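User: Sequence for Threonine/homoserine/homoserine lactone efflux protein below. Tokens please.
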Amino acid sequence: MNPDALGYMAAGAALGLGAGLTPGPLLTLVLTQTFSHGPKEGAKVAFTPLLTDIPILCLSLLAMSWIKTHPSVMGIISIAGAIVVTLFGYDCFKTRAIILPEMNIKPGSFKKGLLTNYMNPHVYIFWATVGAPSTLLASDSGMLAPVLFLSGFFVCLIGAKITVAYLAGRFRELLSSRTYLIIMRVLGLALFAFALFLLRDGLRFLNLIN
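Assistant: Structure tokens for Threonine/homoserine/homoserine lactone efflux protein:
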């Protein structure tokens, strides 16, 4: 298998894990649904990015197809993506133990997950500055690379949230333990490494480095 394709798969996996485990609106909803109605309802929320993110990705790719013919614009977007991923990594480092909610909300997990994700501006920022540009860049390494990048991202994003739902249902205290914090620090380092990768590409598009 092409080493570049494996690299993109690893990058997608790191981004997916970071997004899946970092506290935010969707993870909070996963937890509240899990505690109110069980891990199955939390898992329903975890699957909603498959419906919300793919249309956003497609629109972003259409825009990127034109932008890709303008290297300077691609350079600026890649650098912006590096900044966004660096902030994601920083969020991993400043993450504290998850505060587990005690809310009791009604079922309708899938619909609530869709609305939560569509209303989250970070989803649009991610696909416009990181997800879609990385997918297009991966296509330069063959058709397998973007497939692996997106597969790594979605499998780890959804898998991480399902795992959180399961752990919240079975081992509630683990999400507030040191183990969770160590995992987040490691993910932060992985995201910093990917940010450097995006920064390098941005500088290359701008002809500032070889």
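The two ends are 26 Å apart (CA to CA).
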